Amino acid sequence: MRLLLTILLIALSVAATDARRTTRRGLRPAPAEVSNSVAEAPGDTIAVAEGDFTLAGFEKPLRSRRESFFVTNNTDHDIIALRVKLIYYDLDDRMLDSRIVDADVDLAAGETCRVYIRAWDLQDVFYYYRSARPRSGVATPFKVAVTVTGAVAAKDLYKASSNNVEPKNREL
């Protein structure tokens, strides 16, 4: 009997409480604002010609998660991004892999910077042949050809490139 009385009291107290509506009524989606202006891009893509960039100092030790190399900007533009094509070879010049990588850089005209990219060797079994030979006997050396195939110049310093010669692969 006590149990029945307790349940009845709880049911009455729940029914007597104010039920508050927490959502707003009459809401309608607002129309999207249409703008006729075009968003400003941070830079302009420029044509890359042979000699615009000098590449040197490639590095990828065994078990490294990243590769790095130095890029010298021989153009009149400040560069904010590079597109780089990398072709990987074994020591018998057989192609192992190739890829295109976009890298954000802060490279003023005439200056050099080190560019870091994610390593292609996800299994950690390759090392760059000019790096120190690892103590492990299961590592495979590789060579790489690197080409800058595109660049983004900072918008305020953009000048059209007059040299339209195709860039060549540079083996590092």
Describe the protein.
- The protein has 172 residues and is mainly beta.
- The chain has a domain at 43-157: Immunoglobulin-like.
- It contains 1 helix and 9 strands; from the N terminus they run αβββββββββ.
- It has one helix spanning 2-16; strands at residues 43-46, 53-59, 66-73, 79-89, 95-107, 112-118, 126-128, 140-154, 170-171.
- The strands form 2 sheets. Strands 1, 4, 5, 7, 8 and 9 form a 6-stranded mixed sheet that branches. A 3-stranded antiparallel sheet has the order 2-3-6, with no helix packed on it.
- The chain starts with a helix and ends with a strand.
Summarize the helices and strands and which ones pair or pack.
Blueprint: H1 2-16, E1 43-46, E2 53-59, E3 66-73, E4 79-89, E5 95-107, E6 112-118, E7 126-128, E8 140-154, E9 170-171
Parallel strand pairs: 7-8
Antiparallel strand pairs: 1-8, 2-3, 3-6, 4-5, 4-8, 8-9
Précis, in short:
With 172 residues, the chain is mainly beta. It contains one helix and nine strands; from the N terminus they run H-E-E-E-E-E-E-E-E-E.
Uncertain stretches of 5 or more adjacent residues: 157-165
Q: Based on the structure given, which CATH architecture of the domain at 43-157 is correct? A: Sandwich
The CA-CA distance between the termini, in Å, is: 91 Å
- What percentage of residues falls in helices of 4 or more residues? under 10%
Number of helices in the DSSP assignment? 1
How would you characterize the largest beta sheet? 6 strands, mixed
Radius of gyration: 30 Å
Q: Mean of residue pLDDT?
A: 81
Into which percentage range does the β-strand content fall? 35-45%
Number of strand elements? 9
Shape: elongated
CATH class of the domain at 43-157: Mainly Beta
CATH topology of the domain at 43-157: Immunoglobulin-like
- SS content category: mainly beta
* N-to-C SSE string, H for helix and E for strand: HEEEEEEEEE
